[in-house]
Write a structure and sequence with these properties.
single chain
Length: 233
């Protein structure tokens, strides 16, 4: 969906005085949202809680799903305004500033910060010692599978949505598309996904025998042994 948001920005007013901001540059707000969120989380939550983990991994994942669904709804509402503006003045560049998309990029970045840290820590922390590397691979596999499903969904929508005018919801020209419908579908799917996740998260019982705290103690113990051997030498 970041791709469609960049295309939205390309069709809107991106000028700062005489300078035109490249549409792909709006990804900096997405990356900035990730970096700032992680920095604030570590400094304000983890340090102030005395070194505890703060939010659990399942809470981080749930927070991502909630924020992602809310951001899709907001972006769909913004697209409705773009469509109304385009119908009034059908020009290549809409008379709406592209910087109204900045909060959306930031919210998606905040959500990604939690999903990456929560999912990776969950896979590694709940796996047996001999399967830590495999858990890391499973984490990356879930990301790849998500992109694969998204590609199938986009292609499916392009095939089944052309109306009497022959234009699908996701047309080659972004101003001729109906991204508001597309975001509505994504919001519904996201809501269903969030409900399923809550059900499984409530049902899941953490494997405390393979927790990250125990792994951390084992690593620290091995480091102490190595330092002791070096001192003897």
């Amino acid at each position: 969906m970041i791709t469609f948001s960049v295309q939205q920005a390309a069709s809107m007013d991106r000028s700062i005085r005489k300078f035109q901001v490249p549409p792909a540059s709006f990804n900096v707000f997405f990356i900035g949202g990730i970096m700032i969120t992680l920095a604030l989380y570590v400094s304000l939550i983890m340090k102030r809680s005395g070194g505890s983990k703060g939010l659990t991994n399942l809470q981080k994942i749930g927070l991502d799903l909630y924020n992602s669904n809310g951001s899709c709804s907001r972006n769909g509402a913004e697209e409705i305004e773009n469509i109304r503006s385009y119908k009034k003045t059908p020009t290549t560049t809409l008379p709406i500033t592209a910087f109204v998309l900045v909060p959306w990029f930031a919210i998606v970045g905040i959500a990604e910060a939690f999903i990456y840290s929560g999912s990776l820590a969950f896979f590694i922390g709940q796996a047996p010692k001999g399967m830590k590397a495999i858990s890391n691979s499973l984490f990356l596999t879930t990301i790849a599978f998500g992109y694969f499903v998204t590609t199938i969904l986009v292609n499916l929508i392009k095939k089944i949505t052309p109306g009497k005018d022959g234009i699908p919801w996701l047309a080659s020209k972004i101003n001729d598309s109906r991204l508001d419908y597309f975001y509505a579908v994504i919001s519904v799917l996201g809501l269903i996904n969030f409900g399923v996740y809550l059900a499984f998260a409530k049902w899941y019982k953490p494997n405390s025998s393979h927790g990250s705290a125990k792994d951390s103690d084992d690593v620290n113990a091995s480091h102490d042994e190595e330092r002791a051997r070096d001192a003897e030498i």
